[in-house]
Write a structure and sequence with these properties.
The structure holds two protein chains of two kinds. By secondary structure, chain A is an alpha+beta fold. Chain A is 32% helix and 29% strand. In chain A, the strands form two sheets. Chain A has a seven-stranded antiparallel sheet, with helices on one face. In chain A, strands 5-6-10-11 form a four-stranded antiparallel sheet, with helices on one face. The longest helix of chain A has 38 residues. Chain B is mostly helical. Chain B is 67% helix and 0% strand. Chain B has eight helices and no strands. Chain B starts with a helix and ends in a 5-residue tail after the last helix. The chains are: A alpha+beta, B mainly alpha. Chains A and B meet through helix 1, helix 2 and helix 3 of A and helix 1, helix 2, helix 3, helix 4 and helix 5 of B.
């Protein structure tokens, strides 16, 4: 009983105890905390973290910061994407204006009396690039570059004769005549075999032409073909790469006695081409 | 607008400051600085001040806020007992008096009770709330509050007897 009275006395003392912290002190701390952004200044506060999170979630400044950050990320991303697209389009434009070597399908080099003509065709047999080099015997080098998208003229043969029975499906061999000259024209495609080219080589050697060639075959198709012909001051070479299918004409002119006169040009297949 | 809200809040707080200060001091004795709890409670209460329906319920609103803060923090972390006997928390000139010593002893004994009993005893015996108000603040039934008060007083008597024996070597009869 006395124990309970003692407890009641203690509780009474606690109930009537003079506060240690006055209202003015508490008011000052409260206002200071409000001015500091709603967080307590005491580091030992156990509720500081939750209050900080609440402040972050509700603070207008924080929302503005999130919005600005998001907007910045979006703007930077869009700038990067647009710049990437711009670079790609400019590269595409450059490719259209200046086709590089990788897009070239057929290169033909024609040399006569120190004058070398290099012609570049695409797979549609359109002339993309023609270079005439006067370097042999001349100090200065003159280079003429022209772009021609016209389809090469097709020779109107007066007479077409087959020299030897060949597989016309893959290789076409014809003889055209023009006045007193005979045109020995051969057509090679991606399906032409090495044996067929060797037969053309034998025919060239019979005409006194130094004929060499090199092929790279994959899946029974020619992936790369280079041919070189040489006779006196005349030189001719061609290189075919980077195409799955092609049909390439070449040959030479012979006189009535079967002697070599000039190489023919893939573009024109005319006598005048030999002078170019 | 904000200034008027502050003034209104402080005007309601001023008359209940003493009771609130005593509650905080007794409630977190040995656990943390009671001023921290007061500051946190005032800030949270000010933040949610618009939700206060009536000025007359400000007292229970303030104490309820403090109780919820303590409950939330109890869930987040285990309370670390502050070192020392609590004298550091009560550095005042009145500490030398017998009454202040007794109150400090009571606070220490209260801190040995469990959370519910301690809080109910402080709210009922020191802060002067009715059982119904304590039940509302603690979000429990009135019967639970009565049970807490009864067991709390019994336990408090045991603690004080034990400490008295340790101090004087003679049990209080």
């Amino acid at each position: 009983m006395e124990q309970q009275k003692h407890i009641s006395d203690l509780l009474e003392s606690a109930r009537n105890e003079v506060p240690v912290t006055s209202f003015s002190e508490m008011k000052g701390e409260f206002l200071a905390n409000l001015a500091a952004g709603g967080t307590t200044v005491t580091a030992t506060s156990i509720a500081q973290k939750s209050l900080w999170k609440k402040w972050l979630a509700t603070s207008f400044k924080f929302k503005v910061f999130i919005m600005i950050t998001t907007a910045s990320i979006l703007i930077i991303s869009s700038i990067l994407v647009s710049s990437q697209l711009t670079v790609n389009s400019s590269e595409a434009d450059r490719n259209v204006d200046h086709p590089n070597e990788e897009s070239v399908e057929i290169i033909e080099v024609f040399s006569e009396n120190g004058v070398q003509k290099t012609t570049v065709y695409n797979e549609k047999r359109e002339v993309l690039h023609v270079t005439i080099d006067l370097s042999e015997g001349a100090k200065s080098k003159a280079q003429i570059i022209e772009l021609d998208t016209k389809v090469p003229e097709v020779l109107d043969h007066k007479e077409m004769l087959a020299i030897e029975p060949m597989d016309v499906r893959v290789t076409e061999t014809t003889i055209g005549t023009s006045d007193s000259l005979k045109m020995m024209k051969f057509v090679v495609t991606e399906k032409t075999t090495n044996e067929e080219i060797e037969r053309i080589q034998k025919q060239a050697i019979a005409a006194g032409i130094d004929f060499t060639f090199d092929t790279k075959v994959r899946n029974k198709k020619i992936k790369r073909l280079s041919m070189r012909m040489k006779k006196g001051g005349y030189r001719w070479s061609s290189k075919i790469t980077g195409t799955d299918s092609f049909s390439f004409d070449f040959g030479w002119w012979e006189d009535a006695n079967g002697n070599f006169v000039k190489f023919i040009c893939n573009k024109d297949l005319t006598m005048e081409c030999g002078d170019c | 607008m904000i200034q008027s809200k502050q003034d209104h809040f402080l005007a309601l707080y001023e008359p209940v400051h003493d009771r609130f200060e005593r509650f905080c001091r007794a409630r977190v004795y040995g656990e943390m600085e009671y001023t921290d709890l007061m500051n946190e409670t005032l800030l949270v209460a000010f933040e949610k001040f618009e939700s206060l329906k009536s000025d007359t319920s400000f007292l229970s609103f303030l104490f309820g806020t403090a109780v919820r803060i303590l409950a939330n923090n109890r869930r987040k972390m285990k309370p670390e007992r502050m070192s020392g006997t609590g004298k550091e928390c009560h550095a005042s000139s009145s500490e030398t008096t017998d009454r202040a010593t007794e109150v400090a002893l009571l606070h220490r004994a209260l801190s040995e009770l469990n959370e519910g009993q301690r809080e109910a005893l402080i709210l009922f015996e020191i802060s002067g709330f009715s059982i119904r108000e304590v039940a509302a603040i603690q979000a429990v039934s009135e019967g639970a509050v009565k049970q807490r008060l009864k067991r709390g007083r019994t336990r408090l008597a045991e603690i004080l007897s034990y400490e008295a024996v340790l101090k004087t070597g003679k049990e209080i009869i």
